[in-house]
Amino acid sequence: xxxxxxxxxxxxxxxxxxxxxxxxxxxxxxxxxxxxxxxxxxxxxxxxxxxxxxxxxxxxxxxxxxxxxxxxxxxxxxxxxxxxxxxxxxxxxxxxxxxxxxxxxxxxxxxxxxxxxxxxxxxxxxxxxxxxxxxxxxxxxxxxxxxxxxxxxxxxxxxxxxxxxxxxxxxxxxxxxxxxxxxxxxxxxxxxxxxxxxxxxxxxxxxxxxxxxxxxxxxxxxxxxxxxxxxxxxxxxxxxxxxxxxxxxxxxxxxxxxxxxxxxxxxxxxxxxxxxxxxxxxxxxxxxxxxxxxxxxxxxxxxxxxxxxxxxxxxxxxxxxxxxxxxxxxxxxxxxxxxxxxxxxxxxxxxxxxxxxxxxxxxxxxxxxxxxxxxxxxxxxxxxxxxxxxxxxxxxxxxxxxxxxxxxxxxxxxxxxxxxxxxxxxxxxxxxxxxxxxxxxxxxxxxxxxxxxxxxxxxxxxxxxxxxxxxxxxxxxxxxxxxxxxxxxxxxxxxxxxxxxxxxxxxxxx
Length: 510
Hints:
Layout: H1 2-33, H2 49-55, H3 59-92, E1 99-101, E2 122-127, E3 133-137, E4 144-152, E5 157-161, E6 172-177, H4 187-192, E7 196-199, E8 204-213, H5 219-226, E9 230-233, E10 245-247, H6 261-273, H7 281-287, H8 302-324, E11 330-332, E12 346-348, H9 354-357, H10 369-376, E13 390-395, E14 410-414, E15 420-430, E16 444-446, E17 461-466, E18 477-479, E19 484-493, E20 508-509
Parallel strand pairs: 1-10, 6-7, 17-18
Antiparallel strand pairs: 1-2, 2-8, 3-6, 3-9, 4-5, 4-8, 11-12, 13-19, 14-17, 14-20, 15-16, 15-19
Helix pairs in contact: 3-6, 3-7, 3-8, 3-10
């Protein structure tokens, strides 16, 4: 009798458990079908995945949007290199292997990610597809030397030039070997002949050189010096043909990335003109569904174009969010003992080990996709070796912690004792494009402009930012008119730890 009762009790208990499990499963199914995560933690719950999957509409389109977003973020550093080629061809009438130069700094009619307004740059885009290629950098003179870098098609630094680079100011021939190079002379043979030799993994490259001026040299001296840079192939080394130099001084040059149809044209350019490297194969495979495939023309359908445009917006939004979120791309330089920001000025953050490794944005285990995209979202040409020649402070927030806007007026006090051996500079950049504000009458001010600026009794300077200058302070004002951010540069910081004894105050909203 007891045995029967016991068996009946077990049966009732099991039925009760089964009923509860069934009810819980039904509740979970209702939750997930309503877009809620399941509450049960049993490993074998299906959560109605088949029914939920059947309810998803236009799966192919949604996947295309996702792939466009991830591809845009991944290819960001390569896209910015392509846009230099676009600019040289479209705006200067030049091409690959030409050298562009300036006899005066860039202005607000030019498009260049966070360039400065005090330097007469020179730059070029190159290709080793026909064979090994040489960049011949002239020796430094008593008036001009170069600070700059040569990068591959993915914005990875290959080498720095000039006194702080490989040639130590003596000039040199930088020889770039294409992927899979199998010439009659080995890398060692070529180095014995005096070349600085680099085996590369892309066909396309670029360089941007910033001149350093001495002994009252002028921007015209920098332009003349740029015309001594030579580019030619190793096969032409015995009798190099003349290098074509393009004077961009009086022309509007634009190498900005634009987040429209041209962005994926740039990605296609990277695919068609460079090898698919092992680390890029996974993301490259996602491009086929968007109409990009090596060896084939890029002719996206209307549906693909719509998905690309939608995905590109999400990519831009993601990189923009990364840019303005403290602790992501940058963080406050000055903090109190508790780690709270004393001012809103930011310094750039780099992934651990990247400055020492030369900014490849790769490690033994991963490609640093987000960190890499975050940098090339607003800068170009990181150096191979991070030096102390210039220190950058980024301004995003005013003293109230609000992002700068283009309708308000702000004031910044620059102390008399600002620790820059050469000079200090503050420049306004469009928050949307990361370039100078288009066609603004002035983009920045520096200690080189102090003769025309009003000075305070204590020797400091008040700089104003806004759509209209305060009366009487026109010479101290940088116009805005749209949402913006700032770069405050110290050229030649007096010490490496200058920030321990000096502080720059926040912008005050007036």
